[in-house]
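From the shared-data thread, chain only:
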Amino acid sequence: MWTVIETPIDDLRIVAHDGAITQIDFHPHDAWDGKRPVGERQDDAPLLVEARTQLAAYFARELKDFDLPLAPVGTDFQHQVWAELRRIAWGETATYGQVAHRLGRTNMASRAVGLANGRNPIPIVVPCHRVIGADGTLTGYAGGMGRKQVLLDLESDSLF
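Structure, as C-alpha cells:
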C-alpha cells in the first residue's frame, strides 16, 4: 500500500508492507519498482498517515528524529550502512570514509558504503543526504543534487 505527500522537494510516495515502511520514492513514481509491486493507494492507512505526519513535521523543522517501523529490502552490508546513516544527527554530515570507519572498515570500503548509500530505499527517514564527499563537497544523490541541497539547507539553520 502507498500514499503520497507534497513536500518542498516534490511529491514523495511512501510505501508500506506488513506494518513497516519499505520505501520512499521521489517523483515521478512507477506502479512497479522493478522488484515488487507497490500495491494500492491507501491514504487513510494508519501507518501511512503517521509517516505523512512525521515527514510534514520534518519539513516544518518540528521533527529531527523519525519514529517509524522500517523494513528496507537489502543485503546485510546495506542494512549495516543504513543503520549507521540513522546515527548521523540532524544538521550533521559524514563522509563515506567516516561511515566506513564507524562500521569497523578502512577507507577502502568507502566505495561500497557509497553504493549502499545510493541504494537506500527510504531516503530522508534514513538520511543518506547527510553523506558527503571526503573533500566536503556534495556528491551524488538518488533524488538529485538539488533535493540533497534543499534537505541539507533545511537542517543547517535549525530552529531547535
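Residues 91 and 155 are 5 Å apart (CA to CA).
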